[in-house]
Fold:
Amino acid sequence: MIVPPLYYIALSAVLFFIGIAGVLTRRNPLIMLMAIELMFNAANLALITFSRVWLNNVGHIFAFLVVTVAAAEAAIALAIVVVVFRQAPNVDVDQIAELKG
Amino acid sequence: MNGYAAQALDVIWLLPLLGALIAWTFGPRLRAAAGGICSAVVGLAFAGTLAELVFVSRWTGMHWGFHQSLVTWVPGFTLGLQLDPLSLIWSLIITGVGFLIHVYSIGYLAGDRSIARFFAYMNFFVFAMLTLVLSDNFVGLLVGWGLVGLASYFLIGYYIDRPSAVAAARKAFVINVFGDVGMMFAIVVVFALFGSVSYTDVFAVAHDLPSPVLALICLGLFTACAAKSAQVPLHTWLPDAMEGPTPVSALIHAATMVTAGVYLIARCAPLWSSSPEAQELVGVVGAITALCGALLGIVQWDIKRILAYSTMSQIGYMIMAVGVGAYDAGVLHFFTHAFFKALLFLAAGLIIHELANEQDIRKMGGLRKRMPLAFWAITSGVLAICGIPLFSGFYSKDAVIYGMLLHGHPILFAIGVLTAGLTAFYMFRMWFIVFFGSDRTEHGEETHASSWTMRIPVALLIGPTVVAGYLGIAGSASPWSRFLAPVFDGARPFEVSTPLNETAVSSLVLIFVACGILAAYLRYGSARATSRDTLRLMREAEGIPLFFRRAFYVDDFIRVLIVRPAQIFGAFLSRFIDPRFIDGLVHDVAWFAGVLGFEVRAMQNGQVRGYAFTLAVGVVAFIAYFTSLGGVR
Structure:
């Protein structure tokens, strides 16, 4: 059985909104990062789907690009999170406001 | 050869500007040396002008003169300089008399705190005046005209810590600008009609114009003349301008600037000669000015104000002459007047300097022995201005008065003769009061002996005061008329036959002059008059009717009719329009920005999740908008 593309798109949209909801509602930086990863991969899923629908490889290439950027982002963000955790456990992102102008 | 002469003209024109820039830039360091530098610069310009005179005097053609293009302004409009007999005469006076007055100023202002500033202004004035007379088009003329007004403003208000001087400077400037506007109007009309502003283009076709248009142009130009040359009713700034230092009065308010109006009318002779209405107007205004100046000269006690009113009166003569078409006579009177009036002012300056800035003739008296140079200088000046034979004024003034008759204006002729008598009366009144009678000076033996730089220019001016008029002997066959022929030949109006010949006119004028002198002698010079003269003069001063003391109420009229309404209007603007509309608009804009900022600031709370939410809402709205449009491409 062939799964119709609409299902993939719908799954992608659902994942994306779960990610947005996570970013907006959670205060723990680690959970927020995970939510952001979820949004990245929702986008990837949509890209791959469109690539299959249109029968060209542009979507694949973009998906690889997104994976690369996501990896770089995760590395930097995790480093920041680790530094912040060292200063104070149980961090709330709303209270990390030392750099506020 | 022609090329060299034309280039020399540039140099002559720019030299005084160079002097002014030097004095302005290095003024504080130069101090007294500025006087020497600036005088030398004007002296060089004079030498250059003399060289031009020698060069062009070998020319025999009828229409001589040359152009030097300076800049092409807009394609087709070239601004340049030109030298012809008329501008040459003016340049000679500006640089020549100007040089002597510069030298005189070195002594007169020695020790003044800001002497370099004074000389910068003086050089700037000479430059402005040269721009005015050397320009070959109306726009250059206007530029010079405006700069001259500015220089005059600077110099009248030279004593910046004296409120009356500042007020006088402002008054002179405002009245001059009024004239500038008239000239601008005329130039705009000229340009609209001819599509050109150069003299040659305009004068070539001037006589083809319908006469109302021509009269309109002349009226605009004459407004400028009246303002600059102190013609009734725009004369009120000239007596006040005596607040400036005495050399300034000599240079600007006697010898050169105030005669710019005479130059303008003489330059535009082709326009005037084709417009009888304009000629009539100018002649009448000139005559009224001559008469009013003489009448007001009688009741003054300030030596400089007497000379100021005499200047006004003499310029009235010149304007009257060039107005009715007696161009040679008018320009000759300018030429002689420049010498004798500069002499009178400089000699008066000697007296003022010696008596520690005393200008009231009631406090002079008996100075004949004490100041022989001033006595002889003023005597020759007075004889010249009264038109005594053998002195320069005789030839020029008689030519003017005879010209009235020759061009068919018997009433103006009568006013001219009467004014000549009045002139003799008030000039000799001053002469008797200052040099005869008892010594009424208050400062006793406290003297400021004048230096040689002041004495030599005065002595040098006595010569031309006597002989300058000889150029005009023999009327239209004189060297003067032949020299000016290229300028005026195309524009000479017809002459009418006169019931009196020139000798008879001269005799008539001399009779009036003799009566004036006799009256002045009986009232101020005779033995009976000079005894107890302090008391007599005091009583006379009290007896002058208010009508004369307030100078015919002209100032009051202007104050009531123009200055007060303008002030009220200005107060209205500043009280209501300005705060409500101009400032109000600015305040409203600022208020709106403030409110907007206050409201929007609430969104900037520094919480990243808040921003992310805004972003998400924005994206949703964006997508919703485009999907609801339904695939619009």
